[in-house]
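S., here's the first fold you wanted:
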Amino acid sequence: MISTGLTSDDPTAAASDNGPDARALDRVVLLGGVGAGKTTFSARLAACLGVRHIKRDDLGFPIGSQDYLDRTTTEVAADSWVFDGPPYFAETLVYPRATTIIALDFERAVVLRRVLARTVKAMATHWPSRAAWEWNIFSSKHPVRWSWTTWAERRQQMADLRINPIVTAAEFIHFGTPIEAELWLAALGAQAT
């Protein structure tokens, strides 16, 4: 079920009785565990809204470096954007500007299936151009293992964020299944046409 502070059994009614309200989606942050589909969903949402898609992984490395923080500050100064993941080390820069936070809070099996599919695709298309640890499923850095071991922590972080004073002004939209997210996005896209 989608939760926005209001209770609704209809996945297309996240922001109002008539479906999602694109006007309220000025600055959006996507949350979810490894493999939830944050980058894919945020790219589609940004395209639907006609706003900038900020890819966290493109802001500089290491995450939390001064370059990363400077680029994050510049990106979120814009009037409209979709940020494709939790802004680690930049929470105080991003969350106060966010008008909407969307949580892709899918079950562990769903996320794991997505990470496995992504891994198989990457192995088929990028082998051997990636670092050796990326192919070693037993490595603590491998996305499959990382997804499995951090799933509960990410889920708790999403729940904790709802009551964090830094984001109390933002609308919080919670999707518990991929179909809820897809229906909501389709309803938003229907408004745009």
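And the second, which I think is the more interesting of the pair:
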Amino acid sequence: MSRPPAPAAEPTHPPAQVKRLRDRLRRAEGQVRGVQRMLDEDRACEEVVTQLLAARSALDQVIREVLSERVSECVMTLPPEEARAAVSRAVGLLVRA
């Protein structure tokens, strides 16, 4: 027997934050496209790796901002036990990364 679909989650990010996140993601996307071009051009390993690290850093910043916002929201709005569980899940996500 199948379950009914879960209700859609309420948006949790204010528009200004969404813009910042999208800007960071576009920057990372541009860096990854740059790496593809560099590989096609047979650029030096050090240059390619430097660009890859920059893309990873941009993505790491998005992850930190999304998780930070969510954890702050949980701590302020949830009962203590639920907030602890949410923080624990967030930490688990970071450890997996």
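Why I say that: The domain at 15-96 is CATH 1.20.58.1000 (Methane Monooxygenase Hydroxylase; Chain G, domain 1). The chain has a mean pLDDT of 85.

Talk tomorrow,
H.
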